Amino acid sequence: MIKYFVIFFLIVKFNTLHAENNVLFFVESALQKNPKINAERENLKAVKQNENISKSEFFPSLTISGSQTSAETSNIIDQSGVRSGDTKRNTETKKISVDQKIFQGFQGYNNFKKSRLEFEKAKKEYKQVEQDTILNSVSTYYDLIFKKKSKDFNLANVDLFERQVESDRSRLQKGEISLTDLAQSESSLAGAQAAFIKADSEYVSAIAEFERINRISAPKDINDNFGLSFTMPQSLKEVLELSNSQNPSLAIARINLAISERELNVEKARLSPSATLNYSKTENKDLSATIDEDDKETVKATVTWPIIQGGKNFSSIKKFKHKKEKNALLLEDKENEIKTQSATSWSFFQSAEGVLASTEAQLKAAEIANEGITLEYDSGNTRTTLDVIQSRSLLLEARISNAEAKKDLIISKMRVLSQVGGLNLKAFKIP
Fold it and tell me: Each residue of 182-203: pLDDT tens digit?
């Protein structure tokens, strides 16, 4: 029994550790806990209520009111000087009123359509924030990997130079190298230590940014997993077509124009006649000295038509016409902006693939060269200390460049998906 329990515990532990080193684990954490996207969720719920508010204009409103008045009259003297007795009256009134708007010049209809557009806009804004959150989460994840590898590379470089300095001091005593060679090694060691301090500081900053975005502690051991892939568009033409139809920012600009058209229609409707119908029923008790109780029912139809309001409505119409023209111009600018950004993101993605291939070739050549130069130097061949220092510097640079190129390729893919509105959890492919 204990054996099965131990096996179960190890399986659960392994799966937990595997999940915690998976990029999707951190993306889901960001989508659940990041304050910015949670605020957008609350905004979406709030805007949704605007539809219910605008619908209420089409339904009757019911009002129930009641009042009770106590009045006492004393020192009553008529014109002949005769004093009358004091009076005391408690009047009670109950009223039920129902109001129904019959016609408002399509003002209510346009307000309802506007509220629906505002909800669609809120959904696009949520999608935009969701995409930004995913992009930031994955960016901080891979930036953390890159900064960790950079720190490790620089630490290994420091270790190599420390051993070289020790070796060179021994070789100096044997007369195999000069004091200048030792000085070069010591200088390179100092430079490597400074580079390590900088890399360590950048790693600490990357941890802080990772935790700010993902709202979870950064893992101490993070997998070197650059195998993340996505369902990508296949050409620039496809990118431009998708961004034109699905980019959230562009969709928001189009909705803003549609909202301004509805607002203009609402202002025009204010100049139209409106009709309302009212039904009320009133019950009075102890109404007067001669009437003890009465019930009153009233049906009232009201038609209003604003003719002159000091130019207020006409100025409002002009105001919203200008606002509509403004949103039309902003939409045109946004279309050009998204087109440029989409082409740029695709170009960056294409170049990132080429850069990665180049850095891989650079790294392979640097490893071979460093290994050969180090062996020749250790065997007392013609290689100098400067040759070794240069080869190690080139190897360190190649390792860092290759790690950064891997990160940049993944981020470039995500930026393309963000432009075409396809950056979501379904786009991820993890081998």
Answer: 898 889 899 999 999 999 999 9
